[in-house]
Amino acid sequence: MSLASLRQATRLARRELRGGVRGFRIFLICVILGVAAIAAVGTMRDSIQAGLAQQGAALLGGDAELELTYRFADETERAWMAQRAVALSELADFRSMAVVGETRALTQVKAVDAAYPLVGQVVLEPAIPLDQALAGDGAVLDPVLIAQLGIEVGDRFTLGTKEITLRAALIREPDNATAGFALGPRTLLKRETLEGSGLLQPGTLFSTHYRMTLPDGTDLAALQSEAETQFENSGMRWRDARNGAPGVASFVDRLGAFLVLVGLSGLAVGGVGISAALRGYLAGKTRTIATLRTLGASRRVIFLTYLIQVTALGAVGIVLGLLVGVGGVLLFSPLIEARLPVPASFAIYPAPMLEAALYSALTVLIFTLWPLARTEDVRAATLFRDALTEAPSLPRAAYLLATLALLGLLLAAAAWFSQTLTLTLWTAGGIALALVLLTLAAKLVQALARRFRRLGRHRPALAWALGAIGGPGTTAGPVMLSLGLGLSVLATVGQIDGNLRGAIARDLPEQAPSFFFVDLQKDQMPGFLERVEGDDAVTRVDRAPMLRGIITQINGRPAREVAGDHWVLDGDRGISYAATVPSRTTLTDGEWWAEEYSGPPQLSFAAEEAAEMGLSLGDAITVNILGRDITATLTSLREVDFSTAGMGFIMLMNPSALEGAPHSFIATVYAGAEAEAALLRDVSSTFPNVTAIRVRDAIDRVSDLLSGLASAVAWGASVTLLTGFAVLIGASAADQSTRTYEAAILKTLGASRRRILRSLALRAILLGAVAGVVALATGLLGGWAVNRYIFETDFEVIWPSALSIIAAGIAVTLLAGLAFAWGPLTARPAAILRARD
């Protein structure tokens, strides 16, 4: 490319741009919406991550934390922490039942010491000091728990066997973001208050957290390394203020990445609009291009002229999109922050802006390269013909290769930014499949419209509508692509959400237990079994000893070096023991130990998880239980189905390996709904230390989380639909002159305005219905794939969601079509026909 050609093309492009951007309005709207959506999501994500980083110590409750499972720190561990900390706080966290008369409610109890909280403030109502509220037998409760129990400040309730006084409502606890998924609202009290309650005894399920404030300048990484070396085999877990709420940060990062990928769908829709707008603009420039060729302009100069225009306008659209996306988040940051459960530091972050700009620039180039390439086919001899409509459908090989390279670069950028190659490829594949299906559908509907037009001889409005769809200059392609892709995303989200809710509401009640009872002591088991097994409404009872442990080593190597970041290694896991193969258990490989076996520890592992972790029979698995390392040989694999919400353990050992350790029992009870209230009342009254977890309540919590996720994704997908609507508006505006001419001819032949309006409405309804049906087909396919291969649940069509997609397609195209119907209906035939002459 010579410098002279570039100068000449720049000069020509500048002259053309002086005439304004009328032909590029939809182009700019599509770019702005795509950039704004991705920039807004990215800015939200980075703002929350920055807030979590800045408030790490407050979220964690200190500069660093050591967590232990089912035990308190020993003297050596306490001495190590005390030597390094400026201040130290100990708390225990567990679930229990709060009782008032016949009312029982599950609660997440936090038993604290006098130093709590080391960082941040607890907010109470009434606003009294925390030490005053927790003095004596006092406690503070979450307002939701207060409402569930039906009590007021000053009333008394029972935890275990201890009566406790409600002193205030707990409005905010500074370290709540680290609590994770909680099935019950919070109770906060002093550990001393629980003495004599029977709740924190050996073998019960609880975790202890030791928060430390450290001297200024402490090297957190070095201190973590020292702690992990010092307490390598203690089952200790470390967290510090560098990532005070790792679960929240990880969730925000993953959800943000997914929403950005959904935003790419919006850019794809915008790309369709960009391509259509550019084709229309260049079609109107045929004479200008032919004149330039007559005056000696080369193909390269013509191509560069319009490429420079597209680049300049694309840059303007990207800048405006960044202003809208980032500016919108900053403008509404007070409202957003008030609704967020975690801190956020709203500011301008370069990374999401760069990400949005890069995606958009690549999309603009991908969707404009082919229309621009067709300008080379305009010759001087075609001065009075529309050369662009006669050009070959495919450009030269160089442009095809360039398009493929740009697509590869876009996918690489998406995978790099999202850190999810698989999800990126699935998203790209879904978008590509939807575009192919919609393109084929557009071709098919045009062909069918031409074929069946004569069937409308006695229905003029229908005949005119079919003629407009199948005739020259039809906008069926852009309408189907832009609207259909947006509806495809919404259809997929709707089917996934509906099927997950269906699995929860339909499948689990037939299989899932009514209650999980935890913290059953060994001497309580006979009485417990007598009560539940003697109830005719109870159909099944499963019970097992319950411990928890952390896998620390595999074959003498750190577990994560062998199995990576598998979820089984993420924290402690439930462990049990059994002398014989449990009922309803299927061994897939290996052999079970003898019933009276008392040799070295042996281990049975869940088969699917073992395969994922690369485990095989004969491996030595080291598990830390209550600070003690137990190394067992893997001797069998078995099927474990967690989808039933029943009892399932990743690991089972032979009894002699574990039964000497302090532990409790867990039981699942399957009963009719009519028996649940009495069952809960009797068990909690007889065994106050036992915690009952109602499975349906847990399912409702999961359902609420899924609802929030689906809403977030649906809002992201709505931007795609909004972009599609903008493309529809552009197509309708570009089509208005053709429809006005048609209306003028029809009026001349005696057609009424009502009949012409009916024809325009029928055309919009037909295109919208077909786009909705194709979008539904792709949504069903996408929903089936996600439910089948990711969530591993059954799939069935959610008809309300499905029909709403078709209705949305019809409504959107009808609105867009009718918005531009006034011009054709009110135009004077004589003036229109004379202008065409």
Automatic annotation (TrEMBL):
<feature type="transmembrane region" description="Helical">
    <location>
        <begin position="303"/>
        <end position="336"/>
    </location>
</feature>
<feature type="transmembrane region" description="Helical">
    <location>
        <begin position="255"/>
        <end position="282"/>
    </location>
</feature>
<feature type="transmembrane region" description="Helical">
    <location>
        <begin position="798"/>
        <end position="822"/>
    </location>
</feature>
<feature type="domain" description="ABC3 transporter permease C-terminal">
    <location>
        <begin position="262"/>
        <end position="374"/>
    </location>
</feature>
<dbReference type="InterPro" id="IPR038766">
    <property type="entry name" value="Membrane_comp_ABC_pdt"/>
</dbReference>
<protein>
    <submittedName>
        <fullName>FtsX-like permease family protein</fullName>
    </submittedName>
</protein>
<feature type="transmembrane region" description="Helical">
    <location>
        <begin position="462"/>
        <end position="491"/>
    </location>
</feature>
<keyword id="KW-0472">Membrane</keyword>
<feature type="transmembrane region" description="Helical">
    <location>
        <begin position="760"/>
        <end position="786"/>
    </location>
</feature>
<dbReference type="GO" id="GO:0005886">
    <property type="term" value="C:plasma membrane"/>
</dbReference>
<keyword id="KW-1133">Transmembrane helix</keyword>
<keyword id="KW-1003">Cell membrane</keyword>
<feature type="transmembrane region" description="Helical">
    <location>
        <begin position="356"/>
        <end position="373"/>
    </location>
</feature>
<feature type="transmembrane region" description="Helical">
    <location>
        <begin position="21"/>
        <end position="42"/>
    </location>
</feature>
<keyword id="KW-0812">Transmembrane</keyword>
<feature type="domain" description="ABC3 transporter permease C-terminal">
    <location>
        <begin position="718"/>
        <end position="822"/>
    </location>
</feature>
<dbReference type="InterPro" id="IPR003838">
    <property type="entry name" value="ABC3_permease_C"/>
</dbReference>
<feature type="transmembrane region" description="Helical">
    <location>
        <begin position="423"/>
        <end position="442"/>
    </location>
</feature>
<feature type="transmembrane region" description="Helical">
    <location>
        <begin position="705"/>
        <end position="729"/>
    </location>
</feature>
<dbReference type="Pfam" id="PF02687">
    <property type="entry name" value="FtsX"/>
</dbReference>
<feature type="transmembrane region" description="Helical">
    <location>
        <begin position="394"/>
        <end position="417"/>
    </location>
</feature>
